[in-house]
Specification:
alpha/beta, ornithine cyclodeaminase, domain 1, Rossmann fold, 2 domains, eight-stranded parallel beta sheet, 13 helices
Length: 325
C-alpha cells in the first residue's frame, strides 16, 4: 500500500509566500529555457465535456520534474455559474521511481496564485525596471493574487483597474488601496487604463478584444493571460517583441487560438513572428527587452510544470492528512 498526503487550500496558503512562489517559477522557467530536467505532457492538455454552455468543461495537463523524480497531473473542471466560473482544480503528484502517487493538492487558490506570479515573473524580465503605472484588466480572483508580488518587484505609483462591472473595479481598488504602496484606482474603460501605462495585465473572459491598435504607450509591456481574445490581432503588428510560454497550448485557448481563425494565420506564421519563449528569456538564451521604447506583448497562460513545482513545495512544507491507498 502507498501513503498519500492530501493538502487542502488553507495549508497551501499558509506554506507558500509570494517570494517563495516567484523563486520557484523563476527556476522552472530558467530550466525550461535551458532545456534540461523538465517535460510537459504530450499533448500539453486534454479537453473533455459535452460542450454545452450549462455543463462543465474539463482539462487535464501533465508535467515532469526529472530533477526531483516527480510527475503530476492537473485535473480541472470549470462550470459556468452566472458570469463566473465554478472551478475544481486538483493536482496529483507521483514518484517517478516507484510509480506511486504521493500527494493530492487542492489547487483552488494555488492555481490563481501561480497564474498571477507567472505574469509577475514575465513582467520582471520584459517590463521596464522603472515602470510606475500598471493597468489590470479584470478584477477576478487571479487579479487579486498579483499583489503584493507586482508592487514588490516594481516601485509602482498607481494601479488602474478595469472590470466588466464598474462596481467590481471599485471594490478591487478599495480592497488594495493603502496596503501595498501604490494607489489603486478604478478606471472607466481599457483605453483610459492603458493611457500611459507601463505594465498592462489582462485577465478576462472578454467576448471581443479589449486591447486594440494605438492603445499601448511606447515602452509598454502587455501580458495577456485570459482564455479568450483579449488582444486584437493587429496589435501584433505594433509590438516590437512577442513572447509566449507555450505555443502548443496557446493554439487551444486565448488570443492565439482566436487569431488562428483568421484567414492566412497559421501556427507556422505565428511561430515565425515569435521572438522568444519566456524560459529562454529568463535563462538568458534570448533577449527580452532591448530598449526603453520597445512595446512587448507576452502571452502567458500557465504551464503545468509551474503547478507541479509549487505543489511539490506544498507537499514538502504544508500540513496535510495521510491516507493509505
Amino acid at each position: 500500500m502507498a501513503r498519500l498526503k492530501i493538502v487542502g487550500e488553507a495549508a497551501v496558503k499558509a506554506a507558500l509566500t509570494p517570494a517563495l512562489g516567484l523563486a520557484v517559477i523563476e527556476e522552472v522557467y530558467r530550466t525550461c529555457g535551458l532545456g534540461t530536467g523538465l517535460g510537459l505532457s504530450d499533448p500539453p492538455a486534454l479537453f473533455a465535456g459535452s460542450g454545452r454552455s450549462d455543463r462543465a468543461a474539463l482539462k487535464v495537463k501533465g508535467a515532469t520534474l526529472a530533477a526531483q523524480d516527480l510527475s503530476g497531473f492537473r485535473l480541472i473542471s470549470d462550470l459556468p455559474a452566472g458570469d463566473r466560473l465554478q472551478t475544481s482544480d486538483l493536482c496529483m503528484v507521483y514518484d517517478d521511481r516507484t510509480g506511486q502517487p504521493i500527494g493530492l493538492v487542492d489547487e483552488a487558490w494555488l492555481s490563481c496564485f501561480r497564474t498571477a506570479l507567472t505574469g509577475v515573473v514575465a513582467a520582471r524580465h520584459l517590463a521596464r525596471p522603472d515602470s510606475r503605472i500598471a493597468a489590470v484588466i479584470g478584477a477576478g480572483r487571479i487579479a487579486h493574487e498579483l499583489f503584493p508580488a507586482l508592487s514588490e518587484v516594481f516601485s509602482l505609483e498607481e494601479v488602474r483597474v478595469v472590470a466588466r462591472r464598474p462596481d467590481s473595479a471599485q471594490r478591487f481598488a478599495a480592497a488594495h488601496d493603502g496596503r501595498w504602496g501604490p494607489r489603486f484606482v478604478a478606471a472607466d474603460d481599457t483605453a483610459t487604463a492603458l493611457d500611459g501605462a507601463d505594465i498592462a495585465i489582462t485577465l478576462t473572459f472578454a467576448e471581443t478584444p479589449l486591447v486594440r491598435p494605438g492603445m499601448l504607450a511606447p515602452g509598454a509591456f502587455l501580458c495577456s493571460m485570459g482564455e479568450t481574445e483579449e488582444v486584437d490581432y493587429a496589435v501584433l503588428d505594433e509590438v516590437d517583441r512577442f513572447v509566449i510560454d507555450d505555443l502548443d497550448y496557446a493554439t487551444r485557448l486565448g488570443d492565439v487560438a482566436y487569431w488562428l481563425r483568421r484567414p492566412g494565420v497559421t501556427k507556422d506564421t505565428l511561430a515565425a513572428r515569435l521572438d522568444a519563449h519566456i524560459g529562454e528569456v529568463v535563462a538568458g538564451r534570448k533577449s527580452g527587452r532591448t530598449s526603453a521604447k520597445e512595446r512587448i506583448l507576452a502571452i502567458i497562460q500557465g504551464m503545468a510544470i509551474c503547478d507541479l513545482a509549487l505543489c511539490a513545495l506544498a507537499l514538502r512544507e504544508a500540513e496535510g492528512a495521510f491516507v493509505e491507498i
